[in-house]
Amino acid sequence: MASLCLLVVFPFLMAYAASKDVLTMKIPNRVSVILVGAFVLLAWTAGLGWPELGSHAGACALVFAIGFALYCAGVTGAGDVKLAAATALWLGFDALPDYVVNFSVLGGALALAILYMRSYPLPGFALGLPFAVHLHDAKVGTPYGVALSASALVTCPSAPLWRMVLQG
């Protein structure tokens, strides 16, 4: 069951969150709720002890607190904050620095790519795609859920929880 959570549920939810963010500029709350619920199932089936649970819960709380402050300052969206916190729950403190660095690099590259794309007119074939028209609008933000999800998928294989479950 633990391997199923790691190898199917987590990657599927990351891909779903990224695609929903691109298409709608929103990350549904159910994604973060399912991530938390699946982590609880994973922790139970993998036999995580209190110290490991504390590390994972602490990483989640820290990311949520920083993300909430950024949300209050108008820097990020609420869906991004919830997704990042739920992802931190899966990664724990040990993998959190890698996640933040990966997200920063991927998020910066994504922002630059969208700015570059917006500097040119939208091609005719894309005019019939509502999400492309919306994404091309300079008044619309950047779907950072894509960078959060990609960073999670890049970081997770090196996280201690992944190594413990997949090697044990």
Automatic annotation (TrEMBL):
<feature type="transmembrane region" description="Helical">
    <location>
        <begin position="33"/>
        <end position="50"/>
    </location>
</feature>
<keyword id="KW-0472">Membrane</keyword>
<feature type="transmembrane region" description="Helical">
    <location>
        <begin position="99"/>
        <end position="117"/>
    </location>
</feature>
<dbReference type="InterPro" id="IPR000045">
    <property type="entry name" value="Prepilin_IV_endopep_pep"/>
</dbReference>
<keyword id="KW-0732">Signal</keyword>
<keyword id="KW-1003">Cell membrane</keyword>
<dbReference type="InterPro" id="IPR052218">
    <property type="entry name" value="Preflagellin_Peptidase"/>
</dbReference>
<dbReference type="GO" id="GO:0005886">
    <property type="term" value="C:plasma membrane"/>
</dbReference>
<protein>
    <submittedName>
        <fullName>Peptidase</fullName>
    </submittedName>
</protein>
<dbReference type="Pfam" id="PF01478">
    <property type="entry name" value="Peptidase_A24"/>
</dbReference>
<feature type="transmembrane region" description="Helical">
    <location>
        <begin position="57"/>
        <end position="79"/>
    </location>
</feature>
<keyword id="KW-0812">Transmembrane</keyword>
<feature type="signal peptide">
    <location>
        <begin position="1"/>
        <end position="17"/>
    </location>
</feature>
<keyword id="KW-1133">Transmembrane helix</keyword>
<feature type="domain" description="Prepilin type IV endopeptidase peptidase">
    <location>
        <begin position="9"/>
        <end position="112"/>
    </location>
</feature>
<dbReference type="GO" id="GO:0004190">
    <property type="term" value="F:aspartic-type endopeptidase activity"/>
</dbReference>
